[in-house]
User: What shape does this take?
Amino acid sequence: MKRASAKEPVGKKNSGLGKLMSVLHQNAASLVTTRTAHNGPDQVLPGGTDLTTCRRNQAVKLRRDTTGLGNCEPVSVPSLVQHVAEANPDVVAMRQKDAEGQWRQWTYQNLDEEVQIVAKALIEIGLHRHHSVAIMGSNSPHWIIANLAAISAGGIAAGLHQGLNAEEVARICIDCKADVIVVESEALLKKVLLVQHKLPELKCIVQWRGEPPLSDQRRLAKSHKKHILSWEGLLEVGRALQADRLEERLSKVAINQCCSLVYATSNKGVMLSHDNLTWSAKMALGVIRAPGFNPTPSPGDEVMISFLPLAHISTQLIDIYYLISIAGTSVFPATPILHSQERFFAALKEVRPTVVYGQPVVFERIYHKLVEMRRTLSGLQKSIMDWSCGRLMGNQQEHIIPQTDSKLGNIQHKIVKNTICRKYKEALGLSPKTIFICRGGALPDRVLQFLSGFDIVVHPAYGQSECCSLLTANVPKRFCKFSSVGKPGSGLKLKLGEGGEVLAKGRNVFMGYLNKENDTKEVMTEDAEWLKTGDRALTDEKGFLVLTC
Assistant: This one.
């Protein structure tokens, strides 16, 4: 039982003086909090004592370790972009091919400048702190710029799958408090207009490709006092504003608050902080370019085609945050290539990516293309191809490790890789040094084995949206066991719980589900330290994780 203070007689604690002192105390505490909260964007708010939250504006405690990668300094998304742009202003960040076949490019300086312009415009048209910018459309530089600008403006970027129906769009936009919706096309604009009357927070819709119909603009402004802008119109708004509009917002950004929402795999908004995203990008670097096995690429050397939906965190992590962290280049074909084999291989040949990071369907497509190429060969050519594949598959088997000695078999292995295999890989648009990582499902063993015969070693990986899509992976040039999903990434900890359930711990573990406290508690252990993935697995004698269901 709480004992009354000697200075406060019983019965007097609700007096006018007591209430006044209480208000003064709260105001003073609020003032201190406000002052400490104006050191962004790389501040960590001290109020974050819980590891999880379901509130959009609440800070969480960073899951920082005491050693290793888990102990590295946290950085915000705006600072990541700014630092890379200052160090590599002329390196190409993004390239996009237009309908006429012409390439447009954004250097890192261009990217940083356009993000700032759009961020100022978002503030001007009504984006509040901790409210969202919903983004819906095909992969493009505009998608990425809108995403980064929303975060820089103190808001939350919420990627929406363009296949959602109008009611699903409305439900998500209500859940995330979308002040602004950015869409690619007039068709997606019409989808939003069907339900805009249900969205009380909505202030403006932006269409990045083409001009939105003037009739829709007038009708929406007259009936609901909401606005529709083209991308160029949005840029005009931002260019007319002073930098202090953005600086004031940036000063309040905190690394341990939510900056991104993912709805791609469920009806729950997965809340991700600045630290979740920027730290996971560092961890991904250790997977794709393992120190001591794969040299870190120089600025501009890492090139990837962005073609898997950006609404998924697995695509955002690699196509946005990983590439920015190493000053790489993201390339956008003129038309979507995911569902077109012809356009897919044409893009590979034109771009020649250094990394192919994708779902099983991507590698099954490569497999079928090679099988088709084999059918067209003469008897002698087919025999040479089969001998070549046999040499590599026989050398590697199911467990692939780097070749370190110079035995005769390994010499033949190198000759095959650098002659016959190289020829077929280059015919597909792949270089001898291209890295292949598969996530989002298992590939049949026969496909993995067949591709390895062409020196296309696909490295299975595993993760969920709740852990920024990456927990374990087989690491290029270090180890690869086809029947497994590899080993935990650097700075991550995994253990098997009851029934073999995979439990994960690290700075990539999400903040919680937006507005869903009970759902958040259900996927975390009681102390909120470990994420319960719901997947069952076992570990073999060498530490590889093998999913069982």
Summary: Confidence is low (pLDDT under 50) at residues 1-36, 403-409.
